[in-house]
Amino acid sequence: MIQDNIGCISELDFSTSLFDACHEGNKSLVEVLIQERVPVNEANHSGFTPLHIASHEGHTNVVELLLSKGATEVVNKVNENGSSPLHLASHEGHIEIVELLLQNGANVHQVNNLKTSTPLHLAVHENHKDVVELLLKIGAKVNEQNKNGSTALHLASYNGHTEIAKLLLENGADVNLCKSDNRSPLHLACREGRVDIVTLLCEHKACVDQKDNDGRTALFYAEKYKRSEIIEILQQASNPAV
């Protein structure tokens, strides 16, 4: 079967064939192409290496093979969007690949070219709790801010990822750290109607009176969007003796 594959591609660009094989997860073909001295670390026009592609598609055995054949040299290489293989695997929730990449020198703190996201930001946004746990265990900076000032807790609060928010708080997330618009995680949770998150943040001493750049508190957003249950939670947090 492998010989048939080789015969089909004998007149084609071997490098392109390696990208295709990595995309499809065809480990046997990847092995043959590497034996034919196809460059393992060559990037395509978009800056993707074979390792980027296999990491994004979740082909653990191919990633393992590539790393054993020299792809450790490009483990932190970024594509035209500034994403490393670890960014891609974290975004897609491929926990085994995330672990492999980290074991082979992937930088858990790496941000893209525009400083928009770390692997932790991406895993939190996509609600991949197991990946978040691993990244935090390795030492990901829980309070790292992206270009808009959002932390992982902002993303979890906005999207309603309660279990991840708990995990972040347990690992030192600053409940009152604000974005560039001076909005805290509580502002976002109230605006989006995330009752469980609001409760959790208030339990961790979120500042109910924090004002954003427009002079608005979390209560303003709860009232604006008629979040009656959240209004009660905020009022209780403001007057705990009541």
From TrEMBL:
ANK repeats lie at residues 46-71, 81-113, 115-147, 148-180, 181-213. Coiled coil: none annotated. Gene3D superfamilies: Ankyrin repeat-containing domain (1.25.40.20). InterPro entries: Ankyrin_rpt, Ankyrin_rpt-contain_sf. Keywords: ANK repeat, Repeat. PANTHER family: ANKYRIN REPEAT CONTAINING, ANKYRIN REPEAT DOMAIN-CONTAINING PROTEIN 16. This is ANK. It comes from Mytilus edulis (Blue mussel).
